[in-house]
Amino acid sequence: MKTAPPFRLSVFAILFAAVILSWVAGAAQGEETNSRIAEQKDVMMPMRDGVKLATDIYFPSRDGKVLDGRFPVILSRTPYGKASTAAKAYTPHGYVVIFQDTRGRGNSEGTWTWMSDDVPDGYDTVEWIAAQPWSNGKIGMMGCSYVGATQHLAAMAKPPHLTTIIPSNPSINHGIGSVIYGGAFRLRIVNWMLNNAAKGSTQAQDPVMKEFLQGQANNWAYYLNHMPLRRGLTPLRAVPEYESMLIDMLEHRRNDDFWNFSNIINHVDEHKDMPVFMVGGWYDLFSSSTTETYMALKRDRSSPTHLIMGPWVHCSTSRSHAQVDFGPDASVSSTSIQRAWFDRWLREDKSQFGQEAPFRSPVRLFVMGTGDGHKNEDGKLFHGGYWRDEADYPLPQVVPTPYYLQSGGELTATVPSEENQSTSFEFDPKNPVPTVGGCTVGSNSGAWNQWGSSHIWNAPSAMPLSTRNDIVVFTTPPLEKDTEVIGPITVKLWASSSAVDTAFTAKLIDAYPTSSDFPAGFDLIMGDGIIRARYRDSDKEEKFMTPGEICEFTIKLDPCSNVFKKGHRIRVDISSSNFPRFDVNPNSGEPANNNRRTITAVNTIHHDRDHPSHIALPLMPVETDH
């Protein structure tokens, strides 16, 4: 990435006389009841190339007048449509709050691209704000997902007046895992393109086009079942910038220069050195990216970097999701903690900062799994959990501990002693293993029992996934003591295939024993991962397999923070597909997104003395009761 060049704009005081102020209730607890918010809608902010971006600005006001003075500013740059909700939480406390449609979205001018314009546009926006008479020159940013990404991308341009950011579950590092994961493609991008072309593209401002695009978005399952998508032959051909970006991403499986626009980890030296508060969830689709970005910033930058990881799904901080309840302590007020952070760095209020959670320490982690497993009144499994305050992540005290895949489906801490032990299965790309929960996004994301159900569109029958013959299950005996796992997870696999290219997946499960509330037990997904065989040695170069040759694979799973309780089992499922979280490998060796054939492969997992396949779990030393 290249740092954006300096950009200067004169103060556009004339805007104040040109825009009608409307007043909405904005009083917050502890504020005077006559506080109000003054708003300017669709201020067209110019960028360096002349394109103007639609911007809503909310000012502190009283008795019908904008308050005099210069204020700190909180900015969100979004492709999802500007909203005023957050203004009511911050403006009465002395902040100017700004929401901006990103280029080519909403009411903004220009042509949309997937984040590539958000480095210079982020710089120009921050510096325009800093030049205004109502700005004190201290500007923070907030937002989740894409809106989290625009914060990091602005920071890559190092605008002088960007003071701090709070990226929540940011959609960054696309070549490292957020889009391309072990050479596989996260199919949620197909859904994103279809839906957002219909909801915010320039073309969708035409009602007829909007109706057409929304109809195609509603048929997302058809398109996922009929991959690959070919340029000029998709419903997105009516919005060519969306189709072009989608096809380009589907074809670029290497972590190469194509992905540099969002790969913060690989270019962290270009990231502005300033206070950063990373917010993530263990069940968020970007859990690996969020924690790894924290690690990179902490290692390379000198300013304070904080991290909070809850048991949450994407852009949520609630106590429960899917089929699991993590207890009342799991829920936090994102507004409260964000305002505490902004008060510290934008208002220089040091009076309370660091005295209360989550800022007593640089890292605050929720450890799942200390509940008793009963069924709550909503029918959810009470998995429970507790918070840990730590100095860093990964925790320095964890002990990486291998659990080895054994013949007969056992999983133990003992290195296999047998020779020539393996398990083979057939992987048919036309019948992939369905995704059931985990670090995805949407209604099927989060903490799900690993059974089919009516909520799973491609596995509606209420049967356990483990009954499939293409899933090889390895489990420990019932645990003799609580086993606490916190940190990154990897699986080391020795495997062979009848194909020149295939894929291997791994899934970590907390297997509950049977109980009166859950007679079949509960197979709780903790995380999973995938590797395409051609990228087993490098994420930048392809190397095909020789059929029958044993190769070594490393599969990165989502990070985990969980207590596997006494009596539970630690379970690892090995297979070759996880659809639609990832696209299905056709096993043919054809170029990415350009296959015409599928081949059923015989894939073999080797688990013996010379090929000690295992999962590496970061175990916490035994501590006293929580």
Overview of the structural elements:
The protein has 626 residues and is α+β, with helices and mostly antiparallel strands. Strand 7, helix 4 and strand 8 form a beta-alpha-beta unit. It is globular and about 80 Å long.
N/C terminus separation: 45 Å
Fraction of residues in helices? 10-25%
User: What best-fitting shape do the alpha-carbon axes yield?
Assistant: globular
Structure annotation, total helices: 11
Mean pLDDT over all positions: 93
Largest sheet: 12 strands, mixed
Name the poorly predicted regions: 1-34
Counting DSSP E segments of at least 2 residues, the number of strands comes to 29
Q: Strand percentage, roughly?
A: 25-35%
Instruction: Tell me the structural class.
Output: alpha+beta
Estimated radius of gyration: 25 Å
